[in-house]
Amino acid sequence: MIVSREGHLLTNHHVIAGADDIQAVLSDGRIARARTIGTDPETDLAVLKLEGEDFPHLALDPEVPLRVGDVALAIGNPFGMGQSVTLGIIGATGRNQLNLLTYEDFIQTDAAINTGNSGGALINAEGRLIGINTAVLGRGTGAEGIGFAIPVRIAAVVLEQILAHGHVVRGWLGIEYVDASGFVPGARGVAVAAVHAGGAGGAVGAARRRPAAHPRTGARSSTSTTCAAARPASRPGRGSSSAACGAACPSAPSWSSPSGRCRRVRAEQGPLRYSEA
After folding, report:
1. What is the pLDDT of residues 219-255, one digit of tens each?
2. Which one of 8, 13, 14, 196 is the catalytic residue?
3. What is the DSSP letter of 80?
4. Catalytic site residue 44?
5. How many CB atoms lie within 10 A of CB 237?
6. What are phi and psi of 23, to 5 degrees?
7. Which is nearest to 50 in space by CA: 64, 62, 36?
8. Residue 201 CA, distance from chain mean position
9. How far apart are CA 167 and CA 20, in angstroms?
10. What region, left, alpha or beta, does residue 82 occupy, with left being phi > 0 and alpha being psi -120 to 50 degrees?
11. Dihedral pair phi/psi, residue 223, rounded to 5°
């Protein structure tokens, strides 16, 4: 998806990851070579630069209205069949806790998103960009029409950061957290489970809280956050503080993917499988 007259192209990180030679086929049949300017695996976005200039492009407006029930059209190249458009609506906004990415705030749509649609535009009825097609809930789960797109407001920030710095610069707390109810019965929110040396959390005195003792037995609940699903903390300025997992991972998802990304979420909901589009 071309987002500037100069030929800056925005796509998914998983589309170009590991590629040695990248070429873009334009709608008028032209083929343009592209080089990678920067990627952000945490949001699954990448910025490329096409050779040439004066390209037709889509404008990125972070303030574009995004309402449940609005018409949504997904543009892509499903299964290599050629550019096509599918029609649906915005089913939900703010979808997270899917364990697909470190930072999640997906648009859910029932516009058909298939293999080959990744990096394609999700637009509204006025032709304005609202998201970047990214993933779909696999049909092996019995799902029908549950696709996900990254909102344009997130894409606009990532694009700006990569063009300015070559990568995305983020704040870094250097802490890991879990549900506070495992520490204080009935409490809501989160509790600090670990503090990483050298992080901002440690500098301001954040401390790991011990789990609360049972009022009758005196036993303490398990609060281990070490599980196969947890990603290690990233270094300051380049990623997230941590990936939170369930206390002692009693219902942690099963993580299995060549790309290292989760394909299942919340065991209590069943083995939901996600696929990159």
Report:
1. 444 433 333 333 333 333 333 333 332 222 223 333 2
2. 14
3. G
4. yes
5. 12
6. -130, 140
7. 36
8. 24
9. 19
10. left
11. -130, 20
Place of tokens 């970047």: 132
Cβ count near 177 (within 10 Å): 19
**C-alpha to C-alpha distance for 244 and 247, rounded to whole angstroms:** 9
Polymer length in residues for the chain: 277
CB 24 within 8 A of CB 16: no
Question: What is the rounded CA–CA span in Å between residue 168 and residue 187?
Answer: 35
Strands (E), the chain: 8-11, 22-25, 31-40, 45-50, 71-76, 84-95, 106-109, 121-123, 129-137, 147-151, 175-179, 190-195, 274-276
Residue at token pair 């960009």: 129
Q: Give me the DSSP letters along 6-39.
A: T-EEEE-HHHHTT-S-EEEE-TTS-EEEEEEEEE
AA letter at 196: H
> Catalytic residue at 14?
yes
Residue 52: other Cβ atoms inside 10 A: 12
**Residue 57 is a catalytic residue:** no
Contact status, residue 218 vs residue 205, Cβ threshold 8 Å: no
Q: Which pLDDT tens digit goes with each residue over 112-151?
A: 998 889 999 999 999 999 999 999 887 677 777 899 999 9
Catalytic one of 4, 118, 241, 242: 118
Q: Is residue 43 classed exposed, middle or buried when 0-12, 13-18 and 19+ CB atoms within 10 A define those classes?
A: buried
Any idea what the Cα angle at residue 192 is, between residues 186 and 195, rounded to 5°? Answer: 170
Burial class for 22, CB neighbours closer than 10 Å (0-12, 13-18, 19+): middle
Residues of the chain with pLDDT under 50: 214-271
Closest CA to 191 of 217, 227, 232, 221: 221
